[in-house]
Design goal:
Organism: Aegilops tauschii subsp. strangulata
Radius of gyration: 28 Å
Largest sheet: 6 strands, antiparallel, barrel
Protein name: Polycomb protein VEFS-Box domain-containing protein
Keywords: Transcription, Transcription regulation
InterPro entries: EMF2-like_DUF7651, Znf_SUZ12
Strand content: 25-35%
Strand order of the largest sheet: 2-3-10-9-8-5
Distance between the termini: 39 Å
Pfam families: DUF7651 (PF24663), Zn_SUZ12 (PF23320)
Number of helices: 7
Structural class: alpha+beta
Length: about 325
């Protein structure tokens, strides 16, 4: 009994920092510490999900027309533009890509266009709800040379050469968002393959450069309105920087009783579990505690990652000595 009491006394060394953190946290509800505010902001910023879209064309589904070169833009209508009769809205774009071959020709350059957009859950409530993928095929005299390309990216200034007759179509991003909103596969880090049929309409491309932004519009009055055709466009969607959650060491757990809608959250939560082994009484005894979402066992601050937790423990709770290891 005396030895047990002595051991409990040594364990109380861990309790004192916890009591102090509880007092500080209670006080911080009304007057948060500056460092804590910054840490919370950085965590929230790092957790903002982004979606990567990769646009490509397959030879097997597009055989009827000469469709290259094809320019792919991520654009949004300007808020102050009122379309004239026979004109499309004025679209502002920040990135344009060039496709010159089908996706089957992996050795060829310029066979896909990649863009990054906000998380699908935020599309409906953000400015991204007006985004569209614009597809443009111009006549040969208006083509941009590959010298104006960096990877699959086309310099905005070079697009002035595209003025003239063209075929164009668009894919509204909000339609993709509605298809992906409840997609469990995407949330698990997998790539989702979508297909979209785009009607390419004849028109006349009119580049507009408003202030420092690159803008363009399409006029149907200057061309013959006949000759529309359809493209079958493939779109690969994945979380930007996502890691396939099936590779997680927690994948060996059984999730058969977990609803599909909760599955991504459960896996990510388990992937953020941290086991704290508190050694005391001259390192002869040990107590264990498990936290979720990379949270500190002393003050319960969520540190966002294992590396962040290590930095937090060494800088904030330096009264103790920590040893870190990852159990794969």
């Amino acid at each position: 009994p005396d030895e047990q009491l002595a051991a409990e006394e040594t364990f109380k060394l861990y309790c004192k920092p916890v009591e102090l953190c509880n007092v500080i946290q209670k006080r911080a509800l009304d007057n948060p510490a500056f460092l804590q505010r910054c840490l919370h902001y950085m965590i929230q910023a790092s957790r903002k999900k982004r979606i990567q879209l990769t646009v490509s064309l397959s030879r097997g589904t597009n055989t009827d027309h000469n469709i290259f070169p094809l320019y792919v833009l991520l654009a949004t209508p300007t808020s102050d533009s009122i379309p004239l009769e026979g004109h499309s809205p004025i679209y502002r774009f920040s990135r344009a890509c060039l496709l010159t071959s089908f996706t089957e020709f992996a050795s060829k350059d310029h066979n896909k266009a990649t863009f990054t957009i906000p998380d699908v859950k935020n599309i409906a409530t953000s400015r991204a709800c007006n985004l569209s993928i614009i597809l443009i095929r111009c006549d040969s005299e208006g083509q941009v040379g590959e010298n104006n390309c960096s990877g699959d990216h086309v310099e905005a200034s070079a697009l002035r050469k595209l003025e003239g007759k063209c075929f164009w179509g668009k894919i509204p991003i909000n339609l993709l968002g509605s298809s992906l909103e409840n997609c469990v596969t995407l949330n698990l880090g997998h790539t989702v393959e979508l297909a979209s049929t785009v009607t390419m309409n004849p028109s006349f491309l009119e580049p507009k450069f408003l202030e420092q932004d690159s803008c363009l519009t399409f006029c149907s009055h200057k061309v013959d309105a006949t000759g529309s055709y359809q493209l079958q466009v493939g779109i690969s969607v994945q979380e930007a920087g996502a890691r396939d959650m099936s590779e997680s060491p927690y994948n060996s757990y059984s999730y058969s009783d977990v609803p599909p809608s909760s599955l991504p959250h459960i896996i990510r939560l388990r992937a953020g579990n941290v086991i704290f082994n508190f050694k005391y009484y001259n390192n002869t005894m040990q107590k264990t505690e498990v936290t979720e979402d990379f949270a500190c066992a002393f003050c319960l601050v969520k540190c966002g990652s294992y590396k962040g937790l290590g930095c937090h423990l060494n800088s904030t709770h330096d009264l103790f000595h920590f040893e870190f290891w990852v159990d794969i």
